[in-house]
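Why do we care about 3D structure at all? Because function follows from shape, and shape follows, mostly, from sequence. That is the central idea of this module. The next example makes it concrete: a single protein chain, its amino acid sequence, and then its structure expressed as tokens.
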Amino acid sequence: MTKRLTTLLLSLALVLSLGAVAAQAQPGKRVFNAMQILFSLSQPDAFCTIGAVGTDKYGHHIAISAGHCVSGAGYADREIHEDIAPVYDRADPGFGPIGHIRYFKGPEGSQTGHLTKDYMIIELVPEVTMSAQGPYLRQTGELAVPGGEVSPNALSPALDTERLLAPGSNELIVSGQTGVWYGTLWDNQDGIYQAVAPHQAGDSGGPAIQHVPGSALPSSDNGFQASGPWAGITKAIILSWPPFAYTSSANILADLRARDAAAPAGVYGAGFDVTTNP
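And the structure:
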């Protein structure tokens, strides 16, 4: 995260040059939240993580991760219709691309600070199967907060899915390399959440769900499993307390809708719904 930016930012030009050597995908792979992903086959330790998987309003199969995981001024903050930026399952790169980057946020896609649009849209290839079940988290749709504070990225009137969790009375449950964690949401600055649930480099883009009041928290009694609505993705470790920051799903969904409204042909990911596939 912060201080490790150079290990996470990959040149898109390098991605494009190396993507051509990949094998063609074969059918049957399941893609899910918390899957680690590569953008360059020559850099297996420079990876990020999938935060949510689902379908957009146009019928595209979509995965969402963090925008700061890649760079490339010529491609940032615009739709990438060509299959020139492949994405691979880190655990099985030989499968070939599981998808291609269609959008990533540009200069504001930095992981540092409280910037609100740090996300990436990946269109999945037809050969893969989407799943709502990750290693620890099952995502049950998108977080909706009726009457809550509106994301700064939202159009007016805002949708319930574009409204933000209130600090102090909500918990995030997150999944990454070190397992599953949960913690109180301490702060919300323009839709960037801070919580004590930890993460580390490589977890960028990974899943965060809301702990639904009354539901079981992950523990040894339930195999460290949890379910709840998708609430955001891992963003950064920042110089604040708590240091673990997450980009809210409200910010992502609101920005997708705003960009879609401004684009005659629409944008990948607009109207995103988490898959219901097991």
